[in-house]
UniProtKB/TrEMBL annotation:
Stretches assigned to the UmuC domain: 22-202
GO cellular component, as recorded: cytosol
Summary of the function given for this chain in its UniProt record: Poorly processive, error-prone DNA polymerase involved in untargeted mutagenesis. Copies undamaged DNA at stalled replication forks, which arise in vivo from mismatched or misaligned primer ends. These misaligned primers can be extended by PolIV. Exhibits no 3'-5' exonuclease (proofreading) activity. May be involved in translesional synthesis, in conjunction with the beta clamp from PolIII.
Extent of the signal sequence: none
EC number: 2.7.7.7
Protein name: DNA polymerase IV
Length: 372
């Protein structure tokens, strides 16, 4: 049966007699662990990577900080309230990227089929692997050991026959753990899980499921496909199949990003267009730097604005041709920004992104004059 036959997400057939061997590697408190590795004075202490100022946000928290309830994406003031001894450290993304490259180099020793999800996690398909190893569990053990030796950091790993279960498994024995979910144990394992543990079920969806009487995988499995589609739309198909331990999504190497963007929360609200333009310019430049030396260009520019009352709006424009230069990008972004003024409330956050990404055809004559 093809993947589309079962889950609607498919392209390739899966042989049920020969399950895939998939590993999900997830670094433990990655940013915070790098900071503790590089600064011995931080080890064993509650550390948050992010801004300590009033409107700062926690990008990552050490396990010592998590013991107090500090979590990523939490406002810094809330984190400080939960943990008065919390130590804030400014992020060093260049260092994190370097460590991530080391880790991906280790992955590449075993398989070319690597799907990074972020700097600190990735899926690996080791059904066929460069070592000729028959045991995915053994490969996961070797990878974790090599990561520790090369970077001084710990990683957790999940091993299973599909992506959904591999990701759940990697979180099951964190930190510095390894867990395996075999085809024989998969369906029963899913039935016993609380739905909040399911990847793809966030807090709002979990609350909605709970209101509908769905609290565990077993409860979810008891629902009909029609019921789940009625209450969760297209996601209903996904929930229907994962409740049965079914996920035929392949690990996608060299996955093309759908968009790239950046945003900044300001210490003081912005009320004038001139002030907002001044603040937006470095954000636009940051996004452009991320793509200017690569082959990918985008056609859709999206502006994000969050006001002091936390109301959020977006404005977008899709250009006839890919955005070809920083000046071009800035012109479109400033034009979108002009549409939101005058404002009744101060602006506390601005963001901009490029989407409709595709590789630029540089051999075409019309592209020869692009600024790159």
């Amino acid at each position: 049966m093809s993947e589309r036959d079962q889950s609607g997400t498919s392209e390739t057939a899966v042989d049920p007699a020969r399950p895939r061997k998939i590993i999900h590697i997830d670094m433990d408190a990655f940013y915070a662990s790098v900071e503790q590795r590089d600064n011995p004075e931080l080890r064993g202490k509650p550390v948050a990577v992010g801004g300590a100022r009033e409107r700062g946000v926690v990008a990552a928290a050490s396990y010592e900080a998590r013991a107090f309830g500090v979590r990523s994406a939490m406002p810094s003031v809330t984190a400080r309230r939960k943990c008065p001894e919390l130590i804030f450290v400014k992020p060093r993304f260049d260092v994190y990227r370097q460590a991530s490259l080391q880790i991906r180099g280790i992955f590449a020793e075993y398989t070319p089929i690597i799907e990074p999800l972020a700097l600190d996690e990735a899926y690996l398909d080791v059904t066929e692997n460069l070592k000729g190893a028959s045991s995915a569990t053994r490969i996961a053990e070797e990878i974790r050991a090599k990561i520790g030796a090369a970077t001084g950091l710990t990683a957790s790993a999940g091993v299973s026959y599909n992506k959904f279960l591999a990701k759940i498994a990697s979180d099951y024995k964190k930190p510095d753990g390894l867990f395996v979910i075999t085809p024989k144990m998969g369906p029963a394992f899913v039935e016993a899980l609380e739905v909040g543990r399911f990847h793809g079920v966030g807090p709002a969806t979990r609350e909605k499921m709970n209101r509908l009487g769905v609290e565990t995988g077993r409860d979810l499995k008891a629902q009909t496909l029609a019921f789940l589609q009625q209450h969760f739309g297209k996601a209903g198909d996904y929930y229907y199949w994962i409740a049965r331990g079914v996920d035929h999504r392949p690990v996608r190497a060299n996955r093309i990003r759908k968009s790239i963007g950046a945003e900044i929360t300001f210490f003081e609200d912005l009320f004038t267009c001139d002030a907002a333009r001044t603040a937006l310019a470095p954000i636009v430049a940051k996004v452009w730097r991320a793509i200017e030396n690569g082959p990918v260009r985008g056609r859709t520019v999206t502006l994000k604005v969050k006001y002091s009352d936390f109301r959020q709006i977006t404005r977008a424009r899709t250009c006839d041709a890919p955005v070809s230069s920083l000046q071009n990008f800035e012109d479109v972004a400033f034009s979108l920004l002009g549409q939101v003024f005058p404002v009744e409330k101060g602006i506390r956050l601005l963001g901009v992104s490029l989407s409709s990404l595709a590789e630029e055809r540089r051999e075409a004559p019309s592209q020869l004059t692009l600024e790159i």
